[in-house]
Amino acid sequence: MKRSGLKKINKGEKPSNHASAEPCSRKLSWRERILYTAAVILFLGSVSGLKAQILNVGEFIQEQDQWCWSGVSECVLDYHCAPKAQCEIAEYTREVATWHDFGSTDCCINPGLGCNYWNYNWGVPGSIQDILIHFASIDNPGISTYLDTAQIHTRIKGNRLFIFRWGWTTGGGHFLVGHGLVNMNMYYMNPWFGEGFTISDYDWVVSNPDHTWTHTNDITTPSPKPFPVLSLSGPTLVVRGSTGVNFTTPVLTNAASYLWEVSPASAGSVVTGGTTGVLNLTENFTGLIYMKVKGHNSCGDGASDSLAVNVYDPSFIGYLTGEDGIRVYPVPSTGLVHIDCDQPDPGRWLEVLSLTGQQVKKIPVTGKQSTLDLSGQTKGIYFGRITGTPRLIKLVLE
What we know:
The protein has 6 helices and 23 strands. The protein is α+β, with helices and mostly antiparallel strands. It folds into 3 domains: 7-218, Cathepsin B, Chain A, CATH 3.90.70.10; 237-312, Immunoglobulins (Immunoglobulin-like); 315-397, Immunoglobulin-like. The strands form 5 sheets. Strands 1-6-5-4-3-7-2 form a 7-stranded mixed beta sheet. Strands 8, 10, 13, 14 and 15 form a 5-stranded mixed beta sheet that branches. Strands 16-23-22-19-20 form a 5-stranded mixed beta sheet, with no helix packed on it. Strand 3 and strand 4 form a beta hairpin.
């Protein structure tokens, strides 16, 4: 069963009873350490710089209380465009398992007559490793430990999921699918009832008083879906009403086409031309937009990347001469620019941008007097942006 939604929690789950085998029955108490709400995480995921560190897997909830192994297998098979129902997966295990009698009734007819039982991650017929190879030739050698953050990034960039096992301190364990890492926030699909898409602190995922990440099915066969976008380039500062603004991304492995969009849609439209998207803005929109792109083929969409772009009104570019409680001088300057503020502000910054919108410098201007040093920069016109002020500052370096 697929569901939508996303939550960021840290909690314990269900038990198992073998170092390499994982039933998924009872649920431990909630141990939430919420870092951000899902909405904030989704917003941050759209900002330039995250570089497609989250693969867009489907959400699958186990259909029986012992079928976490079937739920994670369904998730991986779906991501590899080889969808199978959980009962079909369990039926294969019933037919080939020699280490346990899963009963004589087809798992798709009545899973309660023997099929609802735990399974191994590898090493026996009908294990998760065997299931993925049998249905989709997905190689997934076993690793008897956790993946570090560098290893996770390598797998995500290579369009590869991974299945990991939690061992409970009270005995038993549970299987989950890892599909992303942003900073220290790990994204995973938990097949337990009511869980699904989850975000937790990486260190907490690896170990806490309730569980330990003990084993990993390391999927070495990339998905046939388009690889994730790792680079999106273009101007980050654009004049209101501009047309024909080009944004580009490198060629993506497995991509048959490229899907471009601008968000919000009211800002304008994008003409798709393969690895280049051409932005045409509406006449009156100003503010922050996001250019987005992802690869597409018959298997589905790859993970997207976004680039934040400031759309500004040229009439709001000028000088700060005291009317906002801030004075920036001299303009033009030979290198040193002074910033005088009526009141101190611990959260105030000055960001200097080139004419193409690239950040040149960023300095704190928290006190009443600060100095910006542009010595060594190329002579010409720059824009300044101070936290809390509505306009861009024109800076001229001679």
